[in-house]
Amino acid sequence: MERLIICGGGHVSLELAHIAARLGFGVIVIDDRPEFANESRFPMAAQVLCLPFEAALTQLGSRESDFYTILTRGHAFDKDCLAQVLRGQYAYVGMIGSKIKVATVKKALLEEGFSQEMLDGVYAPIGLSIGGQTPAEIAVSIAAQLVQVRAALGPGVDKAPGEPGVLCTIVEKHGSAPRGVGAWMLVRPDGSCTGTIGGGQVEFQAKHHAQALWASGTAGDKVEYDLSHAAAELGMVCGGRITVAFQRQ
Predict the structure, then answer these.
(1) Domain 3-153 classified CATH 3.40.50.720?
(2) What is the rounded CA–CA span in Å between residue 111 and residue 69?
């Protein structure tokens, strides 16, 4: 599971934490204010750290699969958080703020020695452009961008670091299947899952195939699933076929 490290415990962060937890991210919230960084405010979070931002980020370390959203209360904190994140590993880093604020922070970091290429990779202003105004609407735009980036990255070992199981990945798609190439689901030995390859009967079948593969000790294989028959039975127009690769890890 990817960690979503939310820097800042304000209103947008609270709305984003709710959505991100439902999307399967391991939510971590950091803030240096006790009234904004506590488990009562963020019950959906896997971890809440009430520490200075740089200390909290240092304590958490970094992974290639980490997603960071910088939503602090001021330019100085944003700059400190972004600098710390850029020194480590990450899959995504986005920072809230107007174009002027973003330009100011990036200019300061450029002067401190960070490369233009590295700074250009920061999603700022954060989120997809959907015209959101309220904290909830802004959180939706950020969450959509997180999903977009995660889908583009596709599956990998960092999707479930250190977890045994069978990784099920869509490697071919024909027709109007609900999920595209790169969608993944990790099936653990106990049958619990992370991720999705589309839900429904096909995902049910894939889960059972993964469990059988794990029990047999097989390294992996590929299976094609035809969604057309199930779609017709339900009166749906979607159908198509997907090929799923199963890989023991």
Answers:
(1) yes
(2) 23
